[in-house]
Design brief:
Layout: E1 14-16, E2 19-21, H1 49-56, E3 59-64, E4 69-74, E5 101-107, E6 111-116, E7 119-123, E8 128-130, E9 135-137, H2 140-151, H3 162-165, E10 166-169, E11 176-178, H4 179-196, H5 198-204, H6 228-237, E12 245-249, E13 252-257, H7 260-268, E14 275-278
Helix pairs in contact: 1-4, 1-5
Length: 292
């Protein structure tokens, strides 16, 4: 599948009895033996117009349930000191190959996605809570923009591809994955459903009664871990470790240092359940979040 960041060119092809023929300047040796691409098809290209209608019709289906716990990936470059304590480490482990830090956001309602045939599916607006900023956003895109503005003040633009920058915890996979993975799963289900129901859709579409594909919930909330013992330790040792990052498991200190990255690396080698926080002294005023 072509990603949102791939460079592309348009090539006219001819399909004859299911075989694709390329123009003369592109022979079989010019392309890789196996790859995935996209084709633009019109309704007249289909033997069964019902299949075309099932793929062409826009429908909205559930993408993530309300109260889903998500993580937004941010750069660790020049994170404001008063926000560094809000960086979290994914449990049981961070997404493979992803660097930087993570900031929590929670869906306040069901997140739906609009399926648009061969086009990339789009997220619909959905209220989000951002604990680190003590505020709310009207959509995941809005939440990403607010978080980036606060945690990445050096960036000129605070927009980004949330499908690649926001991560969910899948029950079946048991690990953190980018939302793009879930989008591809749902779009694949949509295509399979369209093929199976083509004949039914052909009849129903005359009355604009196309039945949307069934959605399958592939994400679940990450269980909330009881951190009361860690916070009790912090209250007792707050002034002793003021200005430091600490990693705690229960009331046991397993790592400390001057940077989040330093402590995270040491803690990851000793425990997957550590709480990593920036310690502020008892006299430090609380951070007040806001909107931009």
């Amino acid at each position: 599948m072509i990603s949102d960041t791939d460079k592309t060119i348009k090539v006219e092809v001819t399909v004859e009895k299911g075989r694709v023929s390329f123009p003369q300047e592109i022979d079989e040796k010019s392309l890789k033996q196996t790859f995935h691409s996209e084709m633009v098809l019109s309704e007249t290209d289909f033997v069964n117009s019902g299949l075309f209608q099932s793929l062409f019709t826009e429908v909205s289906v559930e993408f993530l349930p309300a109260k889903s716990y998500l993580l937004v990936n941010v750069s660790l470059k020049d994170v404001p000191v008063n926000l560094q304590k809000h960086l979290v480490e994914p449990e049981p482990k961070r997404p493979f190959g992803v660097s930087g830090g993570f900031v929590e956001t929670v869906l306040l309602e069901e997140q739906k996605i609009k399926l648009r045939g061969g086009k990339k599916a789009q997220l619909l607006n959905c209220g989000c809570d951002i604990p680190a900023l003590k505020g709310k956003a009207k959509s995941l895109n809005h939440a990403y923009s607010l978080i980036s503005t606060a945690f990445e003040p050096w960036r000129r633009s605070h927009t980004g591809n949330v499908f690649q920058k926001v991560f969910w915890h899948g029950e079946e996979q048991g690990e953190w994955r980018a939302l793009d993975t879930l989008r591809e799963q749902i779009q694949a289900q949509r295509r399979a459903k369209g093929s199976a129901d083509a004949s039914e859709v052909s009849t129903a579409s005359d009355g604009n009664n196309v039945t949307p594909p069934e959605s399958r919930v592939t994400a679940t909330n990450l269980p909330i871990r009881d951190r009361s013992r860690e916070y009790a330790w912090l209250e007792r040792h707050r002034d002793e470790y003021e200005g430091k990052y600490v990693a705690l498991v229960g009331e046991k200190l397993i790592a400390q240092g001057n940077s989040f990255k330093e402590v995270a690396v040491e803690a990851r080698g000793r425990s997957i359940n550590a709480l990593i926080v920036f310690v502020e002294g008892s006299q430090t005023p609380p951070h007040v979040g806001g909107f931009w």
